[in-house]
Write a structure and sequence with these properties.
heterodimer; A: 384 residues; mainly alpha; Cytochrome-c3 Hydrogenase, chain B; three-stranded antiparallel beta sheet; 17 helices; 8 strands; 12% strand; globular; B: 165 residues; alpha/beta; five-stranded mixed beta sheet; two-stranded parallel ribbon
Chain lengths: 384, 165
């Protein structure tokens, strides 16, 4: 029998349609069908100035806006050859890790709810609310933050911001203990996740999996550590690895990543350098509001950047960052003009999704739900 | 502020494991190399792409065992209009390399690398869908993101941003 799961199904985390060929409760063949959220963002990017692309990048993955911002601005900065001041880099790292926590909390809550543990969802969204309030404080937005700019960040942190982050960071590890108390040792949780939807390291590499989906199978790779960007080489953190490559191992990887991320946030708070938050490049970075009122050049640059954009030297770069879901990559081609010639987003989820058939075939329909949850799927990112 | 000039001399870049491997295998297969902004690009002739990928994957010294991405750029209206681009990563050595194949605008087609990396499946379908580049030997070359009955390939440069309507 052919069963159509989705596109409107609560466990598909968006609009994923899965075609299941089933024999009783067993899945014989599985085929994901995507494209329901395709908005042509890559095409839209080609019609925008470089700085106008930043808000578009938020919208491809609504759970980790700042990771996408970061990846895009790093790519453009690499094209320009811009030097970013340390304070901006550390702010970026800190916000990026808070984004990872935000994304993992949504994943944990919804994944647990898919499998039947309702309470965890409420707990996770309690902490997620704290993170969103922090986002709002620094960027003015809760979800589509667009906080990073080519050349730095949009605004400096408000006065009590670091104090609030500190309070959150001190409280958070005990909250992770709460989630783990509800799930990790829970026999029902273990039965639903241990040995379910397994994938070997070889298969995961061959199918292009990345992030916790790959690390859950025991492949030791984390782009933050292996190809450091934005000053990640200054931070110390562990890369949690799984062994079996089942749903439980991917769960453990992400939960331990929550703890590592909050550790990075703590380190960023302790070592936060002072200084400018934008690069010294008047042709690219918008001038301060105050300067525009007193300096002719600042006003001219502001006008030129807004109306004509800024030219980026010819070339092409591929910048990859470790997003909560895996390797997020931006391939940006410049023809020397003020608009990108081509922007391509390498979506971690698209590749991770290719692992679904191998995880699910030969197992029960109920495991399909667990498997989809365990690769932390975001359809906006897949379809772009 | 501007980055340094790109290095395109193949003699200077022979140290790079991917260049060494490909030139050692078949110098005719390599059309050009470029080292720019700390990134290595190797342009490979169209016929050799699948074998080149398999060679790089199985390189004992620096195995580029992970295919990060496949994408395409349309340089309309030049003769060799399409560039299909492969981003490879070596997980053990943390090295990246970019392979390129240039294709003409009429019936652009090249060999699929799905037999080397199954992960190329969706990436190539996406390129086919949005650019109309055909991949010979692909197991299931159908549209991925656009509807089945869609006309045209939206990411081509001669396709208007607003669509045809």
């Amino acid at each position: 029998m052919i069963l159509n799961m989705g596109p409107q199904h609560p466990s598909t985390h968006g609009v994923l349609r899965v075609l299941l060929e089933i024999d009783g409760e067993n899945v014989v063949r599985m085929m994901p069908d995507i494209g329901y959220l395709h908005t042509g963002i890559e095409k839209t990017c080609e019609a925008k100035f470089y700085q106008q692309v930043v808000p578009l990048t938020d919208r491809i993955d609504y759970l980790c806006p700042m990771t996408n911002n970061l990846c895009y601005v790093l790519a453009v900065e690499k094209l320009l050859g811009l030097e970013i001041p340390p304070r901006a880099q550390w702010l970026r790292v800190m916000m990026n890790e808070l984004t990872r926590i935000n994304s993992h909390l949504v994943w944990l809550g919804t994944h647990a709810m898919d499998i039947g543990a309702m309470t965890v969802f409420l707990y996770c969204f309690r902490e997620r609310e704290d993170v969103l309030r922090l986002f709002e404080a620094i960027s003015g937005q809760r979800m589509m933050t667009s906080y990073f700019r080519v050349g730095g960040v949009a605004l400096d942190a408000p006065l009590d911001f670091f104090h609030r982050v500190k309070k959150f960071a001190d409280r958070f590890p005990s909250r992770v203990d709460e989630y783990e108390g509800l799930l990790t040792g829970n026999p029902i949780w273990k039965m639903r996740t241990k040995g379910v939807a397994k994938i070997s390291a070889e298969d995961a590499i061959a199918l292009g999996a990345s992030g916790p989906t790959l690390r859950g199978s025991g492949v030791d790779i984390d782009l933050r550590r292996d190809t450091p960007y934005s000053g990640y080489e200054n931070f110390k953190f562990q890369v949690p690895l799984g062994k079996e490559g089942d749903v439980f191992d991917r769960y453990m990887c992400r939960v331990r990543e929550l703890r590592e991320s909050i550790g990075i946030v703590q380190q960023a708070l302790e070592g936060m350098p002072s200084g400018p938050i934008k690069a010294n490049a008047p042709q690219v970075v918008l001038p301060d509001r105050e300067k525009m009122k007193t300096e002719m050049e600042a006003l001219i640059y502001h006008f030129k950047i807004i109306t004509e954009g800024f030219a980026v030297p010819e070339g092409e770069v591929y910048q990859a960052v470790e997003s909560p879901r895996g390797e997020m990559g931006y391939y940006v081609v410049s023809d020397g003009g003020p608009k990108p010639y081509r922007v391509h987003m390498r979506s971690a989820c698209l590749a991770n999704m290719q692992c679904l058939p191998i995880m699910c075939e030969g197992r029960l329909i109920a495991d399909v739900v667990a498997a989809i949850g365990s690769i932390d799927i975001v359809l906006g990112e897949i379809d772009r | 502020m501007a980055p340094g000039p790109a290095v395109v001399d193949i003699e200077q870049l022979k140290e790079h494991p991917a260049v060494a491997r490909l030139v050692g295998w078949n110098p005719q297969a390599v059309e050009g190399v470029k080292f720019d902004r700390e990134e290595m690009t190797i342009t490979v002739v169209r016929e050799a792409i699948r074998e080149a990928c398999a060679l790089l994957r199985d390189d004992p010294r620096c195995p580029f065992n992970y295919l990060s991405d496949v994408t395409c750029v349309d340089y309309y209206p030049s003769d060799l209009r399409f560039e299909v681009i492969y981003h490879l990563l070596s997980i053990p050595n943390k090295e990246r390399v970019r392979l390129k194949v240039r294709l003409s605008g009429e019936m652009p087609a090249l060999d699929s690398v799905t037999s080397v990396w199954p992960s190329a499946n969706y990436f190539e379908r996406e390129v086919f869908d949005l650019f109309g580049v055909r991949f010979n030997g692909h197991p299931y070359l159908r549209r991925l993101l656009m509807p089945e009955n869609w006309e045209g390939h939206p990411l081509r440069k001669d396709y208007p941003v607003e669509g045809y309507r």
